[in-house]
Write a structure and sequence with these properties.
about 10% strand; 5-stranded mixed beta sheet; single chain; two-stranded antiparallel sheet; Alpha-Beta Plaits; alpha+beta; Rhopdopsin 7-helix transmembrane proteins; elongated; about 400 residues
């Protein structure tokens, strides 16, 4: 069975053109600049290949050279689209470097035979594919293991592009039928697969980004910018598990702004919102980067610290003093900025619910004792049922170590 190479190329350009228009449309709809870059790259590449395929030798050397240069700029745009999508600035010199290199080789080395020129062009495209893969690989910390096609597709494209051409040069360097050989046919088919595969990768990345944004929005309190109750609980579960595996204790504290209802009644809800934002800033500024904090209720906040109870009490006292010293004055008069804090600590593996319950009891003790104070839980929480269930399937030495902590 034989394939007409020109027909395959035209089919590839039609697919790329439709995909490019679709990417630009969705880029405008969703306001994603990277999609516009990708779409424009597809349209440029499709247009240059289509004109070259239809025109052939009638185009002349200068126009053919320009069309090839446009195709290399399209490859550079694909690389830059990956940069833009990942929040980096476009690399404009790199965008046109491939086109300039191709023109330089074609004009400066006119004695090169067509096969060598084809190899040089394939090398430029393969380099852009490698750069695109490297941009995505640099983001492996963002759960890239689950998105391996984002790296595999451009890497495979570079390999499929270079391998047949290099083999053709080595095995049949003087074969005049090279352009109609199985290598070029395979390359034209690969162009279609690459165009479709890249769009699949693009939409997978965009979908993953959208899911991350929505998940983050569902875990963040919009007023304070801190975790909400759900986000705080999920983040704390991971930290507690990590600290439990290392045999280290954790401490939880609950903050309740004193007389907050009175602040709302006297100064209005806008002033109350400003107090909440002020307190959130105070908490964040007085905690370490490894500590977690969140707004778990109206005027209630919480924090988890990977440390012993004694150290947690010192941190709570620092927060209380900082908030008291940050009193603000409105037209109606001074605003009380004090907070009551309950602190509870537990050994490795203590559940968050147990720690919060103990800290809540200490908080009410601080309220009953006059407010604007820190109280530590008198009794350590004893429920380690979750940790015992988790370690039940471990070997005896591991269970002994977990029990000793």
């Amino acid at each position: 069975m034989s394939f007409d190479t020109s027909t395959l190329y035209l089919f590839a350009t039609m697919v790329a053109g439709m995909l490019g228009a679709m990417l630009i449309f969705f880029g405008k709809q969703e306001n994603v600049p990277a999609l516009k870059w990708w779409g424009t790259a597809y349209l440029l590449g499709a247009a240059s290949v289509a004109i070259w395929t239809v025109g052939g030798a009638r185009l002349g050397e200068p126009l053919t050279l320009a069309l090839n240069a446009v195709g290399f700029i399209a490859c550079g745009m694909v690389w830059n689209a990956a940069r833009v999508f990942l929040g980096r600035k476009p690399n404009l010199p790199g965008l046109v470097f491939g086109a300039i290199a191709w023109v330089g080789v074609s004009v400066g080395l006119p004695w090169l035979d067509p096969a060598m020129r084809l190899t040089a062009g394939a090398a430029i495209v393969a380099i852009y594919a490698a750069l695109t893969a490297s941009e995505l690989w640099s983001e492996r910390r963002r759960s890239m293991q689950k998105r391996w096609p984002t790296i595999a597709v451009p890497v495979m494209h570079g390999c499929v592009l270079m391998l047949p051409i290099l083999l053709g040069d080595l095995l049949r360097p003087h074969d005049e039928t090279f352009y109609s050989s199985i290598w070029v046919t395979a390359f034209s088919i690969e162009l279609v697969l690459y165009a479709i595969g890249t769009v699949f990768v693009i939409f997978m990345l965009v979908s993953d980004r959208a899911v991350t944004v929505h998940k983050t929005a569902a875990s963040i309190d919009p007023l304070s910018g801190m975790f909400n109750r759900r986000g705080f609980a999920e983040a704390c579960a991971r930290v507690i598990e990590r600290e439990a595996n290392a045999g280290r204790p954790v401490t939880v504290m609950i903050f309740d702004i004193d007389h907050f209802k009175g602040i709302n009644d006297r100064f209005g809800h806008p002033a109350g919102d400003e107090i909440l934002k002020l307190f959130a800033t105070v908490v964040v500024n007085n905690l370490r980067i490894s500590d977690l904090s969140g707004r778990i209720g109206g005027e209630e906040f919480a924090a988890l610290l990977p440390c012993a109870l004694e150290e947690g009490v010192l941190v709570a006292e620092r927060v209380r003093e900082a908030f008291e010293a940050s009193g603000i004055v409105c037209e109606e008069g001074p605003v009380d900025t004090t907070v009551s804090i309950g602190v509870a600590g537990g050994p490795a593996g203590t559940e968050l619910e147990v720690l919060l319950a103990a800290a809540d009891t200490a908080l009410y003790q601080a309220k009953r004792s006059g407010r604007n104070r820190v109280e530590a839980a008198e009794e350590l929480p004893l429920s380690l049922e979750h940790w015992r269930r988790k370690t039940a399937g471990l070997p005896a030495p591991a269970r002994a170590q977990a029990a000793a902590t």
